[in-house]
């Protein structure tokens, strides 16, 4: 992703995985100060980030908003490279990545190369959009749009690309059911990986983590 963003916008200086501002420990995956009106952040959110608590996300976004020039808005683009439910077709779209048990690393799955190029093209268009059109936050006093009462717009202007509907899955943000589900999924994956490593099972696992 670093290589893609640097190549797609060579005229701009990106910072990657560095402290967002002096005195903070928050490290966005990619940051671009596009203008006095806009700071653009790109976060690679594997699995639609559904393992993260919504309250933690809002606190992270509050820090982003606190440390920007007066009058500027943070455009936060959340990019999921993994599987997701297509809102148009209702079908499950596979991850673009695979994990090699032999090489012990993650790479783009050749069978998903076209999908990966499509996703990064959409990401590029959104970054360019915010460069050309600095975003403005919705405020309840300014508009009756649904976004005005969506707490995701409280501190930043968010865009979720290739995301599951995490809020529909976990309406309470964080609960016992969610934690149990994540633990069960993790245990299942470890067992599958161990089984594959000790047998002639497929050498790749389609997961970016």
Helix content: 25-40%
Rg computed from alpha carbons, rounded to a whole number of angstroms:
19 Å
Unreliable sequence segments:
200-209
Shape: globular
First and last CA, distance = 14 Å
Can you walk through the features of this model?
The chain contains five helices and ten strands, in the order H-E-E-E-H-E-E-E-E-E-H-E-H-H-E. Strands 1-2-3-4-9 form a five-stranded mixed beta sheet, with helices on one face. The longest helix is centred in the C-terminal third of the chain and has 22 residues, at 176-197. The protein is of the alpha+beta class. It has one domain (2-205). The model is unreliable at 200-209 (pLDDT under 50). It has helices at 2-8, 54-66, 113-132, 166-169, 176-197; strands at residues 15-16, 30-33, 38-44, 73-79, 84-85, 92-93, 97-100, 105-108, 157-161, 204-205.
Supply database-style keywords.
209 residues, alpha+beta, five-stranded mixed sheet, disordered C terminus
List the helices and strands and how they pair.
Blueprint: H1 2-8, E1 15-16, E2 30-33, E3 38-44, H2 54-66, E4 73-79, E5 84-85, E6 92-93, E7 97-100, E8 105-108, H3 113-132, E9 157-161, H4 166-169, H5 176-197, E10 204-205
